[in-house]
Amino acid sequence: MNFRARQEKFAKTLIDERLNYFAVTHLPNVRYLCGFTGSAGVLAFSRQQTGRWKLALFTDGRYTQQAREQSVGAKVVTAKGPAVIAAAEWMFSSARKPTAVGFEAEHLSVAASRALSRAVSKLRLKPTSSLIENIRMIKDVDEVAQIRAAVNLASSVFDAVLGDIKPGVPENRIAAEIEYLSRRMGAEGMSFDTLVAAGKRSALPHGVASSNPLPASGFVILDFGVILAGYCSDMTRTVHIGQPDEASRKMYAAVLKAQLAGIEAVAAGVKTEEVDSAARKVLHKSGFGRYFTHSTGHGVGLEIHEPPGLRKAAVPTNAAKKTARKPGQVLEAGMVITIEPGVYIPGVGGVRIEDMVLVTEHGCDILTPTKKELIAI
Ligand code: ZN
Ligand code: ZN
C-alpha cells in the first residue's frame, strides 16, 4: 500500500481547504492514510513554516508497539490522556498563531470536540465532511487486488455452503456455516452480520438470520461479505428450495435483468442515479417496481458502506447534504461499487442479486465470479 502517496494527496486537499492542521479520528481513515490498524489512534497533520507536512500518530500504551511497526510516514506518540487532546496539543505547540484545525465532523463526538476546545483554547475547530472518504472512493491498484481477493474468497464460501441448504435447517445454522468457512479460508472477519432469509422472511430486505427452519419450498437470500487485509467484500445470491413456480421464476428473471441493466449502465462519467434508474426501470416495466425498496448499490472498501451511494435522483435532504451521498455523483474509474437490486413482496418472498464491480473508463469489471442463473436446490 502506498501510504505516502495517499498522505500527499490528502495534504493537497488540506491546502485546497486552507487548513494547516488536521486531526483524523475515523479509524478506517487513519488506517488508509498511515497503515495503523489498532482500535485507538488519532493521526495529526501539521504544516510547517517550510510548507512541509509533519504527521504524528497518537495512540495509547496498548498500541505503541503495533503503531511503530505498522505506521508509515508518521511519528508515533503514546498519549497519556485522550489521543485527540494530545494531538491537538501537539498541533497547537507547533502553531505560529491561533489557528484552525480541521476535524471530521461525522467522526468526532460533541463531547470530544468540547474537550478539545477546552484543552487548547486557541484552536478554532473547523468541521469538514468526507475529505478522506472522497479520496478513498477511487481505489488504487493495491486496494483493487485486496478487494478482488476478498470477493473471490466469499465466492468460494458461497459454493461450499450450497450443499448445506436443505429444508428444516435453521437459517442461523447456514449463517454460522458461512462465517465458519470464511474464517477457515482465511477471512479476518465478516463485513457485516451474515444475512440468511428464507421463504416469507426473504421479503425482509435486511432480515438477519433467525432460528426459523428453511422451508420445503421457497427463496433463500444469502447476503454476506468477508474482510481480508482490512478490505470488505459484499455479495448476495438468492437460491430456490424446490422447483420454483412460474411466478417465482418471473420474479427472479426480473431482478436478474435489472441487475444486468445496472451493470450495463456503469462507466466512468455516468451519474450514480443513472445506474439506479437503469435497474429500477427494468423492475417497473416488469411490474415489480414498487417492491424494489432500497437503493441500487454502494461503494465498498475498508468499510462495507462507503460513498458513492447509487440512489434514486431526489431532492437532497439536509441529511444527504451533510454526507458525501449527494445525488448526482459521477462515477469515476477506480471506484468499487455494488449493484444489488431486489424485489420483496410482503407475505410472499424476495429476491436480491448483488455483485461488486470495478468502474473503468468504458464500463466495468465484474469482480464477483459467482454465476447468477437461478439455482434450484
Ligand atoms: Zn450485501
Ligand atoms: Zn451491499
Structure description:
The chain is α+β, with helices and mostly antiparallel strands and 377 residues long. 35% of the residues lie in helices and 23% in strands. The protein contains eleven helices and 19 strands. The chain has a six-stranded mixed β-sheet with strand order 4-3-2-1-5-6, sandwiched between helices. Strands 7-10-11 form a three-stranded antiparallel β-sheet. The protein has a three-stranded antiparallel β-sheet with strand order 8-9-12, covered by helices on one side. Helix 4 runs parallel beside helix 5, helix 7 (141-161) crosses helix 8 (171-184) and helix 9 (246-265) runs antiparallel to helix 10. The two termini are 42 Å apart. The mean pLDDT is 93. The chain binds zinc ion (ZN) (2 copies). The site of one zinc ion (ZN) has 5 residues, from loops.
Q: Mean pLDDT, rounded to whole units?
A: 93
Q: Based on CA inertia axes, which overall geometry fits? A: elongated
SSE topology string: HEHEEHEHEHEHHHEEEEEEHHEEHEEEEE
Cα(first) to Cα(last) distance is 42 Å
Biggest β-sheet strands, sense, barrel: 6 strands, mixed
Give unreliable regions as ranges: none
Reading side by side through the largest sheet, how are the strands ordered? 4-3-2-1-5-6
Number of strands: 19
Q: Please give the count of helices.
A: 11
